[in-house]
Amino acid sequence: MKIIVFGATGNTGKRVLVQGIKMGHEMTAFVRNSEKLYDQLGEHSAKHVKVIVDDIMDPVSVGEALAHQDAAIIAAGHAGQGEEFVRIVDNIISQCEFQPSFSGRVWIMGGAGLLDIPYTDLIGNNLPGFPPEYRNHNRNFERLQQTQLDWSIMCPGTMIDSREHPDPAHLHVTTETLPIPIPETIKEYSEADIAGYLFSRLQELNVAYDDVAKCMLDHLELGGAFKRKRVGLAYQSNITVC
């Protein structure tokens, strides 16, 4: 497939790029700094990537970069950037909509706080104590719900380097809801107590960057199981979904 990665020098984007090359995809990197990209990839991998150096906020540049691509993975920006992060995502999504030769398959990055909490009508990002900047993911989710594109939102917890999680583990993947077991009694908790309970279990949501990248690359088909879904990941001993 022809895949474009926005934010290809970031922790997630650079892993998507390397794995995509190994899987035989035609990878395009949209970056601000080509030197940084080449330093990260090394000479061998760099030969297998088309590099576009341009302004991610320029609609024309982004639109042209999306031409004839089968999928776009948006790993640019972060929630702490506030309004700029929301504008980055909105610009890329808008150009995905406008570019007639783009297939329509899009992944963007969210966070575990965007997932539904079982037995409640709540998500973590709206609970007291959650960092207010996380609600920028909510805004990006709302933007996606307005489009006809075939999108998915990757919603991991804290992402870690693979060597920090050396033991073999099965990756449990969920759609829409948190990927860890939640007791039904949580529906009786106050919102503050639910927030405290989730904070006490945050470590269970740690997931390696490489596993996040692989899951997105493994689900790039149009109309797949994750179409228009939020996707959660966690390690569990006896469950293999992804």
UniProtKB/TrEMBL annotation:
<dbReference type="InterPro" id="IPR016040">
    <property type="entry name" value="NAD(P)-bd_dom"/>
</dbReference>
<dbReference type="InterPro" id="IPR051606">
    <property type="entry name" value="Polyketide_Oxido-like"/>
</dbReference>
<dbReference type="Pfam" id="PF13460">
    <property type="entry name" value="NAD_binding_10"/>
</dbReference>
<dbReference type="InterPro" id="IPR036291">
    <property type="entry name" value="NAD(P)-bd_dom_sf"/>
</dbReference>
<feature type="domain" description="NAD(P)-binding">
    <location>
        <begin position="7"/>
        <end position="165"/>
    </location>
</feature>
<protein>
    <submittedName>
        <fullName>NAD(P)H-binding protein</fullName>
    </submittedName>
</protein>
